[in-house]
Amino acid sequence: MAALGALGAAGCTRVATASTEDGGDLLDRLKAAGVVRLGIAGEIPFGYIDKNGDLTGEAPELARVIFKRLGVDRVQPVPTEFGSLIPGLKSQQFDVVAAGMYVNPERCEQVIFSDPDYQMLDSFIVRKGNPKGLHDYKDVVEKKARFATGTGYAEIQYAVEAGYEEGDILIVPDQVAGLNAVEAGRVDVFAGTALTTREVVKKSGKAEATKAFTPLVGGKPHVDGGAFAFRPTETKLRDAFNVELHKLKKSGELFRILKPFGFTEAEMTDLTAKELCGG
């Protein structure tokens, strides 16, 4: 992580400053600088540094395409922990959150989101054969399973809503740490997105991913959508980003960009940020 931090900080220029202009002038500043700083959380496949030290993931690759169309030629990673993404955005450590972040009402009070570029269900990492028969959050509660999920993950609230005590949840940095916890027997289950769980268990001989399922929010099935986050003052940048995003959706290019990272047609979406923010 220290190495990733050094990579993200190298050559970091503070392009953005508070703007008094209605809608913000960050896009103009980014065009002039020729680079946009992306906040990432080291989560495969959403946004991470690969084994060659290169920035990749569905969000950074999509950002490259959209910002190129907006006149910004380069993207620069600023790695941080997931729970630090919104504070880092607000304190101008980077310009945009490009980490596949779920849109929810609590986050919508702090940042503004583009429309989602994907939708996602949940899944569990469990021991091979799923010995405790854990298929949803209700099972976790009823069978008193030892439960883990990631820092700042929406799955924390889903488990609490099902009746799990928040203080009993083991919080780990990411899905790799979650896999390790399951394999070592420290927990019975790790909850994450269907995509991250199925990808991280591919090389595991001890763990597997459960079938994707829909969590309940307020007693109703809830489908999450992941998007890019912007500071609330930067509506011009967010709106310009959305215009290009919708062009990519309409042409089918969005799916072609996301497919190499394990996304399927089932994860393409017409959900809007407005819907997920609660209207």
Overview of the molecule:
This protein folds into 2 domains: about 25-120 and about 225-275, D-Maltodextrin-Binding Protein, domain 2; about 120-220, D-Maltodextrin-Binding Protein, domain 2. Mean pLDDT is about 90; it is low at about 1-20. It is globular and about 55 Å long. It is α/β, with parallel strands linked by helices and about 280 residues long. The protein has helices at about 1-10, 25-35, 60-70, 85-90, 105-110, 135-140, 155-160, 175-185, 195-200, 235-250, 255-260, 275, and strands at about 35-40, 50, 55, 75-80, 95-100, 110-115, 120, 120-125, 145-150, 170, 190-195, 205-210, 215, 220, 225-230. This is Ectoine/hydroxyectoine ABC transporter substrate-binding protein EhuB. Keywords: Signal.
